[in-house]
Design brief:
This protein is an alpha/beta fold. The protein has twelve helices and eight strands. The chain has helices spanning 16-29, 44-54, 80-85, 96-101, 106-118, 131-135, 139-150, 156-161, 180-198, 201-204, 218-222, 239-246, and strands spanning 5-9, 37-41, 59-63, 90-93, 122-127, 163-166, 206-210, 229-232. It has an eight-stranded parallel β-barrel with strand order 1-2-3-4-5-6-7-8, surrounded by five helices. Bound molecules: 1,3-dihydroxyacetonephosphate (13P).
Length: 250
Amino acid sequence: MRKPLMAGNWKMNKTVAEAVSVVKALKSSIADVTDVEVLICPTFTALYAVNNEVKGSNINIGAQNLFWEPKGAFTGEISPTMVKDTGCSYVLIGHSERRQYFNETDETVNKKTKAALVAGLIPVICIGETLKEREQNITFKVIEKQIKEGLAGLTPQQAETIVIAYEPVWAIGTGKTATPDQAQEVHAFTRKVYSQMYGDASQKVRILYGGSVNPTNVSDLMKQPDIDGGLVGGASLEAESFTKLVKYSK
Ligand code: 13P
């Protein structure tokens, strides 16, 4: 059985004080949750303080990015060990905003994924097609390339511990969620490609859906057999709405 994972990607939002205040509220509102794993990904600057606040709770933290080199003259970058050092257990890799605005490619996703695993972090690898690609009917082709190139060369053991997040670019921040059927179709396809690469790991890997997930649509999405959780932007920014997502089955 795959344990559901509800993850909040805070993107470039919140000062340290704001971030700490939200996790403080969240800590008490979801203290009773044991059947869903919870992950919050604040900005780099808030990680250390947020980690101090969540220690001993059921909230995990993750970074939104990292660089693959271990150290050195790479001004402005953060190494996998530094991310781990702030208390993170997860890291987002290859979010569509990073691909779109910061030129990340499947090749850099692959380098970052391997470096994250070496540092003992669990990568959450983001994949997804643009609206144009969907309209051209090449969604599966795009997804297959992102998986094959982004995840090439992992051991079967690594392949089952990582997390994949399917986030159709046209559904991010637009209020236009993929329907549960549309999402399920791509999740099932992702698992199929994964099984060709890594066999049984495909039954263990968790595949999250992201793109305008909110308290109203979450339970229908979570009913789909291949959707194992959510990667949530806007609706994760406040404790009240994120609590509803974590407690989607209640
Ligand atoms: P929204 O939930 O705001 O659409 O963002 C999704 C996302 O990009 C999460 O990584």
